[in-house]
Amino acid sequence: MAYSAIKVIKEALTGHRGWKPLWRRPEPKSEYDIIVIGGGGHGLATAYYLASEYKNKKIAVLEKGWLGGGNIGRNTTIFRSNYLLHENEMFYEMSLKLWEQFEQDLNYNAMISQRGVINLFHSDAQRDAYVRRGNSMLINGADAILLNEAKLREKCPFLNYDNARFPIQGGLWQPRGGTIRHDAVAWGYARAADRLGVDIIENCEVTGFDIQNAKCNAVRTSRGTIKAKKFGVAVAGSSSAVMENAGLRLPIESHVLQAFVSEGLKPIIPGVITFGAGHFYISQSDKGGLVFGGDIDGYNSYAQRGNMAVVEDVCEGGMALMPMIGKARLLRMWGGVMDMSMDGSPIIDRTPIKGIYFNGGWCYGGFKATPASGKCFAHLLATDEHHPNASAYLLNRFEKGYMIDEKGMGAQPNLH
Q1: Do residues 325 and 262 make contact, with C-beta atoms less than 8 angstroms apart?
Q2: pTM for the whole thing?
Q3: Which has the closest alpha carbon to 300: 333, 259, 260, 257?
Q4: At what angle do helices 370-383 and 86-100 cross, to 10 degrees?
């Protein structure tokens, strides 16, 4: 079923009786060529690119819950490619370009809105650091514009420029950044993968691996044992728990990251804004709600909820940046489980067990990386070679000291 304006009009005139489910509900087969464990954005994107670009036929995605129940539906919907280090910048710029074609490629409305992302700076030293980052972005083919205070006041007159503890001096602006409906990303990839023959199996939790002579032959699940030639694990905050079933210990910690939405307001914020003197970022949804977040909770957890200390810290950052939001009422809040790597950058690599491949360690950057992550992981699973844009995301870099330390801090709570 292809979507079009004519189809929407027809269904509106006929009582919407012609819509079909976006994907099938198949029973798991006994054997596949490739099994992707994890039905979030990264897992679904991987399956889609395996089927669309590498023409793999027998693919299954195993999801322990329902599609959209994990981090793909628990983020603040932001995408951008404003990174400093070459290894990250070229990867996230690839992802941004894929986002720009997402709706056309998948024939699915994901409400993409390239309203821009502005990182504020509050000192001369921070301005110089952003100039360096902007130059790195331009070298890698991204867009970056340095805004002085006067230009920033024109775009964002509502910020607290004059009476703040950390006066705003300007910002680094990436016009092509923006937001995209997070649930629609999961649904769009699921629909597209299903149309190419991928079996998406929900309520199918992986409970173990059948490994003989350092080679994985099957996975044990809540719906039986399923064989395959290759297994790609993309389960975000559950990475350590799932890989422990294969006897592997990862350089990853799981932390809660909270997000918040206010009541609906008239249009205020033109794009995404990040506070340079604290960890706070905010945008406004199409429904008018202010969507914002901040730092991770300072403890390890697999729970999709956080504590009040971080709520207070996030609200303090918002009030310091724009005191006007103090009158807005909080509508809802939630938590996602972040798989925090030790250098703040991801892992897309083989594991010591033949047949098991791993995709994780995305920290804060998981949602914006979704299309590039899926494409690079699919490349690895299909060809057994690393994609050029993900060739640095190796598991053994921690052993060899080749860190990709984007922000100078790892996953330890005391460093956040």
Answers
A1: yes
A2: 0.95
A3: 257
A4: 100
